[in-house]
Amino acid sequence: MTDSGATPTSLTEHEARDRAALLDVDRYDIRIDLRELADGERWLATSSIVFSCRRPGASTFVDIDGEVLSATLNDIELDVSKHAGGRLPLPRLAAENMLTVSSVQTDTGSGNAILRSVDPQDKLVYVWSTFEPDGAHRAWACFDQPDLKAVHGFQVSAPTEWTVLSNSAAEVVLDRDDGGRLWIFEDTPRLSSYVVVVNAGPFHAMRDFRGGFSLGLYCRQSLRPFLERDAAELFELTEQGLTFFGERFARPFGQERYDQVFVPDFGGAMENWGCITWADSFLHRVPPTYAQRGFRALVLLHEMAHQWFGDLVTMRWWDDLWLNEAFASFASAWASVSATEFTDAWAAFLAQEQLPAYEQDAGPASHPIRSAVPDVDHAFASFDAITYFKGQAVLHQLMALLGEDTFAQGLQRYFDAHAWGNATLDDLIDALGTAAGRDLSSWTASWLDRAGTDTMSLVGTTLLTSSPDGGEPRRHALRIGSYARTPDGLAPVEVRALETAGTTTFLLDLPVADLHLINDGDLTFASVRADERSLSVLLAEAAQLPDPVNRALAVSTCWDMLFKGELSTGDFLDCVLAVLATESSPGVVQPLFTLALRAAEQWSPAVLVPRRLTRLAEGGAARADQPEHRLPALQTLAAAATAPEHFELLDAAATDDVDLAWRVEVRRASLGRYDEAAVAALLARDPDPDARVRAWGVSAARPLEEAKAEAWDRVWRERAVPAGQPLVDFAQCFWRPVQHELVLPWAHRYLDEVAEVSGGGLLALSGLVRHMRPTTADQEWLGRAQDLTEGDALAPAIRTVVRIVADQLTRMLDARA
Description:
The protein is an alpha+beta fold and 817 residues long. The longest helix has 25 residues, at 224-248.
């Protein structure tokens, strides 16, 4: 046996290329025993791998991060004492090989690829796995790189009362003579190691047959009422998505079964082939707002798009990770607008997700969309707003450039040519270029290989475009909308489509108008600056624009100016609050309320914060009687309430809304009015099995040193706050902007924690560092953060997060001054 305590060696791109040139993997037969996880920590696995070697006699290694119990290669026992750094050497390969490795993984409590979770309400145990980018070798021996795809056959032993879920349907389930049941699954198609999955537990299950597919939804038993409430919508969205993508890609999803599993203490969602794993915080404990439902639809469609783009056709190496994620994000908005009720998805994307991409692209953490990834550890650093959201916007730009039908034809060529294999960005661009009959190589170089955001401004009838690196600006396909003031609002005079080339584009016969809106419809990714007259109209009358995308564009333009020190926080708030007073698109209202709250709390001088929160609270109260906007309006009011009448309105509304009641108690606690009896009553009333985390949040909001210390230990020492949205909400309770003097020392503690953070997968750790980021700082903090990110002490993903946080705090402090 071997010791699994050593830190695994990160696989390099060079090593992966060498191994892919040497090996061809045919199949994995993986036997897993989960029975000890019912009341213990051991995940047992035996992995049998059939593979060929192109140079018989050569040597390589198999990845396995766990305790190796035994290993044989072609019936010859291997010396498992040589297992180190997550690698077991494989000497003297034959042309055809059979490798069998038995292993045990005992780290099943940290969320590093595997998590054993106990429901706090009923004490039932659930187990999930998630392997991107290279977590599979923590569960069993494998060649853990994306371009060594293989068929996977799973056999899983589990406690009798558990349901086991994997990528394919269970072919047979047998009772075992020695206890428990054996689940034998149908073979998968050829898949990369990071998109296979095993989830298990006493799940509540719902199934439906729609559009030719057998659809499954699963959750822990304590969340049964919330899944049953939302199942009809989730089934409908799944059917709509599978139909849309099957038609647009000219290739239906590759198997009948499609499952979605909601699990505890999970961040986000993961695109495992045929078996999507979700954070069960997406099963909202009270009826979700329209924006929450719309975002959940986007996540559902994002993971579904990966079934084609990522699972069916997979990148060769992690330098094209951006393409996987950006394409799935782009496709989710495309499908949402085209196939679901959430037709304002592009406006919501601009108001909520595209802004972080603009922010990161303007700071020290900017990087080209496509970056070199020397090893797997660096792949984690690409999980950011540029990868996901700038990449999404750039693909939207490419579709605008080529046209939707041509774009779809190119994708069809791509899938036909590379199904069940691996491909590169060049393969995709060649397919799109062939469909369009144009050379896209210059587009690739300018959009994907250069960092930063172009800026566009209108001077007279000349559109000027500049690039932050001083080079030739990118080619942009966009529209300029010209609008005139009328008694009924801003009316379009002309909307002109154009394609820029170089720094100067002359707009002949540009009509006379009160507002020229650059990037009308938000078709390209660029910072836009209005001329002086247009800016005054934009600030005063953005609410009068006739389209929600353009109203969101107006607000995001003002935010970009605030972020870059070109507009005051007060002017931004005037603009966004005017839009919010009349905004009709429910997908836009909630993210704009969130943006307004951020400006009032975090970007305002301390002396002005109460006054600005009062304005925001009044804006929320004014819309609280409108059914389609009631929930986000009340949630905003709860965050900003200052006057007795605000709390009277909230208390009345919270009698049948436990989520709102928690928010009100957080606000009261942050103002020094913590009510222990009210918290206890809410705990008794709340059906959420994780309600204790909401109670912890109320306590964390108190302006007391001991409250902060207790909350800090729960996050950093005990890791007791679940990942994902619960951690986001808890962090907002902790970092109360009006408590600057109290929380400033904790901002410094944050840097101490970041320097020492360990225990769990890098994705989980970078999520912890990102979500618990401080909202205030001082110059000493900024200096310490710079020193911390200049060395190599931090993992690349965590270093990126700290750079982003430091840049944002620098700009916020400047705005407050």
